[in-house]
C-alpha cells in the first residue's frame, strides 16, 4: 500500500488516498477513476510533497535565539563573579559609591554593586566616581 496526497485542480482540495502501488495509481488515473470528494472533478493529481525547509528568516531567528542564550549565559557568569566579589547595596548604590569615594568607608575591601538610575550614574561620573553599567538578568530562582 502506498499513500499519496492528491490535489483537486478544480477546487484545490488536498486529500490523502491509499493505492496498492504507484502503478495502480497510474492505472486509476488513466481510466479517470480518480475523482475529488468535494466537487467530483476528475482533475485530480498527485501533489508534490513540500520539502521541509527552514526559510532563511526562520534560521536567522533561531541563531539569534542561540546568540541571546549565549549572551545570557555570559551575563550569568559575570553576575556570579560580581556576587562573589562585590557587596550588594541595592538602590543605595550611589550613596555607597560616594561613601567609598570620599573615604568614609575605609574598611571596604570589596567593590559594590547595586542599582542606580541613569541620572545618578551621570552625577557620580560628574563627581569623578567611576561606575560601570552592566546588563543584568534577573535570577528566576529567587
Ligand atoms: Zn475538487
How would you characterize the overall build of this protein?
- It is a single chain.
- This protein is α+β, with helices and mostly antiparallel strands and 142 residues long.
- It folds into two domains: 2-46, no CATH class; 56-126, no CATH class.
- The chain has four helices and five strands, in the order E-E-H-E-H-E-H-E-H.
- The chain has helices spanning 22-30, 56-85, 93-101, 118-126, and strands at residues 2-8, 14-19, 44-46, 86-90, 111-114.
- A three-stranded antiparallel sheet has the order 2-1-3. A two-stranded parallel ribbon has the order 4-5.
- Strand 4, helix 3 (93-101) and strand 5 (111-114) form a beta-alpha-beta unit.
- The longest helix has 30 residues, at 56-85.
- The radius of gyration is 34 Å and the shape is rod-shaped.
- The model has no long low-confidence stretch (mean pLDDT 82).
Number of domains: 2
Q: What is the number of E strands? A: 5
* Broad shape: rod-shaped
List bound small molecules: zinc ion
Q: Could you list the spans in which at least 5 consecutive residues all have pLDDT below 50?
A: none
Please state how the strands of the largest beta sheet are arranged side by side: 2-1-3
- The H-and-E topology, N to C, reads as EEHEHEHEH
Overall structural class, as computed from helix and strand content, comes to alpha+beta
Helical proportion, percent range: 40-55%
Distance between the termini: 57 Å
- By DSSP (H or I, 4+ residues per run), the number of helices equals 4
Q: What Rg, in angstroms, do the CA atoms define?
A: 34 Å
Please summarize the sheet with the most strands. 3 strands, antiparallel
Strand content is: 15-25%
Amino acid at each position: 500500500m502506498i499513500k499519496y496526497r492528491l490535489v483537486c485542480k478544480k477546487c484545490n482540495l488536498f486529500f490523502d488516498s491509499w493505492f496498492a502501488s504507484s502503478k495502480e495509481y497510474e492505472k486509476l488515473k488513466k481510466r479517470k477513476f480518480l475523482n475529488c470528494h468535494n466537487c467530483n472533478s476528475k482533475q485530480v493529481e498527485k501533489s508534490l510533497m513540500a520539502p521541509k525547509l527552514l526559510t532563511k528568516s526562520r534560521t536567522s531567528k533561531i541563531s539569534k535565539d542561540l546568540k541571546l542564550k549565549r549572551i545570557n549565559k555570559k551575563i550569568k557568569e559575570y553576575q556570579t563573579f560580581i556576587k562573589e566579589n562585590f557587596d550588594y547595596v541595592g538602590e543605595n548604590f550611589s550613596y555607597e559609591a560616594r561613601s567609598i569615594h570620599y573615604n568614609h568607608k575605609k574598611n571596604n575591601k570589596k567593590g559594590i554593586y547595586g542599582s542606580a538610575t541613569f541620572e545618578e550614574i551621570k552625577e557620580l561620573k560628574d563627581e569623578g566616581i567611576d561606575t560601570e553599567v552592566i546588563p543584568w538578568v534577573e535570577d528566576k530562582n529567587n
